[in-house]
Amino acid sequence: MMSAPIAERPTGAAPATGVLRQPPGLYLLFAVEMWERFSYYGMRAILVLFIADSARGGLGWSQSAASRFFGLYGFFAYALPVAGGYVADRFIGTQRAMIIGGLTIAAGHFCLAVPALPMFYLGLTLVVIGTGFFKPNVSTMVGQLFRQGDGRRDGAFTIFYMGVNVGAFFGQIVCGYFGESPRWGWHYAFGAAGVGMLFGLALHMRLKRKYLPGIGEAPDRQAVAKAKLSAGPLTREERDRLTALLVIILLTIPFWMAFEQAGSSMNFFAAERTNRVVWGYTFPASWLQSVNSGVLILSAPLFAALWTALARRGREPSTPAKMSAAMVLLAGGFVFMVLGAERSDRGVLVSPWWLIGAYALHTFGELCLSPIGLSLVTKLSPLKFASLLMGLWFFATSISELLAGQLASITGKVARGELFHLFGGQADFYFIFVTSSALAAVALAVFAPWLRRRMHGRDT
Ligand code: PHE
CATH code for 24-208+234-455? Predict the structure, then answer.
């Protein structure tokens, strides 16, 4: 629903064909999103640990309450992008939305840096609102760099996705260090997140005119009129594609529901059940959060090369097939968690390799689903709904976050065998996600031919 259709936006770039010959604007968006994600994931890496801590100035809640709260926070952070995308498209444009969002996010982190409970709530509220303005609009702007059919789009989203994860990686390391170090503390970590966001904002304000000319401006009257002209009923093909996209968006819910255990139940697993001593140094539990982003940065180019190599032989798997593979990899990751949890249930601190193995498989799964999904949204949605559907993609994630938090909050109950009993202990908890992911894999495989027909040729 960008008022001026994506395909008619000036791209400011020559229609080059090589994956790496991207419009320069991509690299600016890469850097800005990198800093925003630095702050987001840096803060998030320690959030449940801070809430459940009672020894070092945390809030001292139970782990179950912390996980539930974490889920609610994730829900709002990804539900508000629907509103943020709408406001940007109809009124202020993605550029201005990003600046408002960035300022609000930074203000939120600085509030969190103040050790007082009301500031905690105010800070998180600001981060959530700011993310709503910021997050969907950057992704939409990546799509706006290209005309329909430009072969560089998928590659661009993969590069962009690496930016997300470079930021996440360093955010988790830096904020994890400050937060869990006895010399500093939680509030320094929140402050560091705020500083990161300010870097991103400064970069954007300085360079946007040069590298993103004419992209993301507030919709002008002419554009609105044009959009109205093209606002006739959808064609059959458009409607089919929309149906396929909606089903795909729905099917991402079980993926993120399991994947997002990272910030809560798996984070507690790292803190309490993992042996984190290396050469006499106990590394922060939140550092294990960065395995995901670290593995992603290393393996994203390999996946991109794999898809290109397969495409050259005319055998690139369709998006539904890739997503089904994503679910299988996710289930495999949780098999690691089941095994690790089973050992830890005997009362020993287990090797960090269980978590590392799980995160690595989850990351491979993520690469088969997430960057491809973002690109797919910009490919399948009718132009006038582009941002709305991007918002919807994130909205599905917000439902996952809610479910993930609710499930994480019953970790203890499941471990005590109060709900069902299979292996006993936390192994039973992680087995829930082996099952849900395997079921989703089957559902996707079954639906694949139906979905592909409705994509009318845009199925890879
Ligand atoms: N990690 C990615 C990002 O932050 C994808 C993601 C988005 C994952 C939302 C979960 C929720 O952009």
Answer: 1.20.1250.20
